[in-house]
Amino acid sequence: MKTLEEIFTDGRDAGSIVDDLKVKSVVVPDWAKLIRDYEPSFHKIRFDKTGRRDKTRSDGTVEEAARISIGLEKLLVRRMTEFMFAIPVKRVYHNTEGSDVRQSIASAIESIYKYARINAENTRRGIAYFASCEIFTMWYLIEKPNRLYGFDSKYKLKCRTYSPMDGVSLYPLIDERGDMLCMSFEYKQKVLDSDVWFFDSYTSDGHYFFKNTGGGWERVYDDPDLAIQKIPGVYVWRPAPVFAGLSGIRNDIEYTVSRASDVIAYNAAPVLKVIGNMVGKEEKGETKRIFRMQQGGDVGYVSWSQSIEALKYHVDTMMKLFWSQSQMPDISFDNMAQLGNIGYDARQTLLTDAHLKVGDESGAWIEAFDRESSVVKEYLKVMNPAWKNEIDEVEIEHIITPFIQNDEKSNVDVFTTANGGKPVMSHLESIRMAGYSDDPEETLNQILREEAAKSSMRTSSIFNEGVV
């Protein structure tokens, strides 16, 4: 692998530089192949003319075979993302006690994440990561005066995630110690009705921009003065998608259901069985039909007998295998309805496998969030230079909580017990959390006035008792 100095040597042509930067340091599956399993419209059964042959009738019309595709991989990716991020990632700030400046820094960082819509971004990049196996989230400044972060700033800090799902090719350059030396990405855009390819490359001390209009790569500009002295983003990858090894099960389900669909469609029309010769013609009334048969004759419909239970057993078994091997529960409406009103502890037990899966996947995400927070801190030094010496003293811990339906009563009981039976929130906080009052403070004051009036009435009745 060439060093950055060798790649960006003065005088090298742009094509050679881009070719060197496209030498990928990690092995990631090709999205062009993964999408064939991820996207139902690309499944094999949709194009299979051999295993699912169309039928040509005597009149020349073609009766297409059933080709039912099922998006289990796509659903699994969403389920995995939902279990990871349906409950927003929590950030806990340490080493801020006793320092107003550090508490203000923590508040500013939290505001940065808030206005960057980080919870929605986590969902988007979770889907891209579990399906296409790699993402790159870049952070950048835009000049726009504001007070969003608790201080006067002429910049807003935003982020954007790139992945192969968006048609962007990612090229990380990582050394043998696992440190990223350069991050590049290639994408195509329409410019004046023509396709133009762009290639962005970021190092810790520069941004290099190339474009290709069809005649080869050209070096557009170099920007050696980055706002921060590090790559302004975070790259995460995995060796296989979350649905790896499961597409064969899904394929079997699709073919089984499609074949059954053809059989059901073929036998859907009623078949009339006639034994013997008919006497006269069929008589049709408004509510009945009459057939006269010779002695010993009979007329009746032939009932079609199919082993529905065997088909249902096979499909159900395949579905259970798919979800059990993915370590995700099948939380479809039908399955949840069968559980009934079970308690909070029972729900936790049922979701044990899913929570263990989230634990397995959390390591890469926590590492990425830690790197991302260091990028945010560096940008904050630019946005508010007065905090430059204190920002690195603020430590950020990221906590991923696997999804589970909340049981507020159970949570309150646990915390109340841990608190020695004392309340865990004030009267005003409970009114705010209820959300019914437009003015929680005034509601609390009104409650206090009403309680004072009742207390006064009780006191008056005690002292006046027995007075004639």
Describe what this molecule looks like in 3D:
By secondary structure, this protein is an alpha+beta fold. It has three domains: 4-29 and 71-244 and 356-399, no CATH class; 247-342, no CATH class; 425-463. Helix content is 41%, strand content 21%. It contains 14 helices and 16 strands. The protein has helices at 4-7, 14-21, 31-38, 72-85, 100-115, 118-132, 247-266, 308-326, 333-339, 344-350, 352-383, 408-418, 427-434, 440-463, and strands at 55-56, 62-63, 90-94, 134-146, 153-162, 169-174, 180-191, 194-203, 206-212, 217-223, 233-237, 271-275, 283-284, 289-290, 298-302, 395-399. Strands 6-7-8-9-10 form a five-stranded antiparallel β-sheet, with helices on one face. A three-stranded antiparallel β-sheet has the order 5-4-11, with helices on one face. A two-stranded antiparallel ribbon has the order 1-2. A hairpin with a 5-residue loop joins strand 6 and strand 7 (180-191). Helix 4 (72-85) runs antiparallel to helix 6 and helix 7 (247-266) runs antiparallel to helix 8. The protein is flat, with a radius of gyration of 33 Å. The N and C termini lie far apart (105 Å).
